[in-house]
Amino acid sequence: MADFNHAYIGRLVQKSQRGDSDAFAELYAITYQHTYNYAAHYLRDPNLAQDALQETYILALRNIGGIKEPALFVAWLNQICFRVCYDMERKNRQEYGENNPELLELISDDYIDHNPEDKTETTDETSRLKDAVMSLPFNEQQVVVMRYYNDMKLEDIASALGCSRSSVKRYLITARERLKKMLRKEGEDV
Question: Other C-beta atoms within 10 Å of 144: how many?
Answer without folding.
Answer: 23
